[in-house]
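Customer escalation, tier 2.

The customer says the design service returned an amino acid string that "doesn't look like it belongs to this structure." They asked us to rerun it and document both sides in this ticket. The original structure tokens are below, unchanged.
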């Protein structure tokens, strides 16, 4: 990242390095550290991982460049940037509808994302208190949560879900931290957070991965992640891989368009987009190499699903040497990943409120974060008081879904793929070709290949995600 170009905008990235770290932070979140190992485990490992890599290269990367290009070309919030390009291209400003979808999706994702991040804060606190106790007893390198039964360790999540005041408190703390950073602006808030949090995240990720390789079952992990069994690569698994590539790279959530607006005109977007895609994929892979050696070493199920992080791994840390320390560091790592992503989720709607409504940044961020917090309350109550509420029981795909799963499922299955589909159509077919080529910096065969992927492959692939998300019976 040497030779970074200085930003001339009054509140933009100070360097290309800052933008790359912030964009990686937006992309690298719970989707990589929690969701990728979970769905890789559920879909058989190796064949899924290979197909996922192909999705990132042929679909994710072209769309990452497309969204950053829209932001840099428009130099406004997501809606304003699309409208600016539409005007220059002589097409309807109604194309900004997909930017509206993205901003709304970001708001809704932030609401339940903060709830899950609250769980992370709780477990970091539990592991931190356990570590302090172990140090006080002179046994800092023992397994975590000594003296508790396996049932008690796994039951902590159930107990947490029943404790509404605690859930609310953790949710409030995380949303408050997100607001405090975004309210400071791009240079003083978001960039500084990325410059501190992302290096710390990568140090922890590599360190815990090396720990897992040393004390865990690395042979079983390599066999699981890198020995493809194509009989397990079902249509359902392929659709999961496509959706994960979309979700984990923050596509369809206004983050990359918004961050792209703060990029200097001298920054080359294509290699920058490549760095973001590579880093995001590397983190997902390292997350698997970090988690599965520990899981296999203690004989746990790699296909445990969403409980893998919050129930299975605490049990694993209890049985591993140094588990008290590693367990604490692991949840700190997840917290850093969640915070950098939540910052980008709040920044998209905040940028729109500042530019389009004329609100000050602190006021805009406060109103949007507050509203997301309230929606998040409905999500967290669905694990206790409102556990029997089925708001969308009339919709077959959400017939038995609690409020949390409805918000999660609607954004992931409908809003993100729909927005990404429209981005591909807009960039590939409607935006002025010369403007697009100038902004991307691509030329010759490379531009032709990228444009083909955006105009043809991306709409087909993302359209399938949308179709199968709405009608999952088609995959059976």
């Amino acid at each position: 990242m040497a030779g970074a170009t200085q930003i001339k905008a009054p509140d933009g990235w100070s360097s290309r390095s800052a933008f790359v770290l912030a964009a990686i932070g937006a992309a690298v979140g719970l989707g990589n550290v929690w969701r990728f190992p979970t769905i890789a485990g559920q879909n058989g490992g190796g064949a899924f991982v290979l197909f996922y890599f192909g999705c990132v290269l042929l679909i994710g990367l072209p769309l990452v460049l497309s969204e950053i290009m829209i932001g840099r070309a428009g130099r406004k919030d997501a809606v304003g940037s699309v409208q600016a390009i539409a005007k220059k291209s002589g097409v309807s400003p109604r194309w900004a509808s997909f930017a509206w979808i993205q901003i709304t999706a970001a708001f809704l994702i932030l609401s339940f994302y903060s709830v899950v991040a609250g769980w992370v804060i709780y477990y970091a606190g539990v592991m931190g208190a356990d570590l302090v106790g172990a140090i006080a007893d002179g046994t800092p390198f023992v397994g975590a949560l000594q003296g508790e039964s396996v049932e008690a360790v796994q039951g902590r999540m159930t107990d947490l879900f029943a404790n509404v005041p605690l859930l609310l408190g953790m949710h409030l703390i995380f949303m408050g931290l997100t607001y405090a950073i975004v309210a400071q602006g791009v240079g003083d808030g978001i960039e500084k957070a990325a410059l501190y949090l992302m290096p710390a995240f990568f140090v922890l990720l590599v360190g815990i991965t090396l720990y897992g390789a040393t004390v865990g079952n690395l042979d079983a992990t390599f066999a699981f992640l890198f020995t493809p069994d194509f009989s397990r690569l079902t249509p359902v698994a392929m659709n999961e891989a496509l959706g994960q590539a979309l979700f984990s790279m923050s596509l369809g959530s206004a983050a990359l368009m918004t961050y792209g607006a703060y990029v200097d005109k001298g920054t080359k977007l294509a290699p920058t987009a490549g760095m973001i895609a590579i880093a995001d994929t590397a983190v997902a892979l390292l997350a698997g190499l970090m988690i599965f050696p520990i899981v296999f070493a203690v004989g746990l199920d790699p296909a445990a699903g969403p409980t893998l992080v919050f129930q299975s791994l605490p049990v694993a840390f209890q049985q591993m040497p140094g588990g008290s320390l590693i367990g604490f560091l692991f949840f700190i790592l997840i917290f850093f990943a969640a915070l950098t992503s939540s910052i980008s989720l709040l920044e998209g709607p905040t940028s729109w409120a500042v530019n389009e409504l004329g609100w000050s940044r602190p006021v805009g961020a406060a109103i949007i974060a507050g509203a997301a917090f309230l929606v998040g309350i409905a999500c967290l109550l669905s694990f206790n008081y409102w556990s029997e509420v089925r708001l969308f029981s009339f919709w077959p795909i959400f017939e038995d879904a609690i409020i949390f799963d409805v918000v999660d499922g609607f954004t992931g299955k409908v809003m993100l793929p729909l927005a990404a589909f429209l981005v591909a159509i807009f960039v590939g077919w409607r935006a002025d070709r010369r403007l697009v080529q100038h902004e991307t910096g691509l030329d010759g065969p490379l531009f032709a290949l990228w444009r083909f992927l955006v105009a043809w492959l991306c709409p087909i692939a993302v359209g399938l995600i949308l179709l199968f998300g709405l009608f999952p019976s088609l995959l059976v």
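Tier 2 assessment: The sequence is consistent with the input. Residues 23-475 form a domain with the Hydantoin permease fold (CATH 1.10.4160). Residues 393 and 399 are 4 Å apart (CA to CA). Sent an explanation to the customer and offered a walkthrough call.
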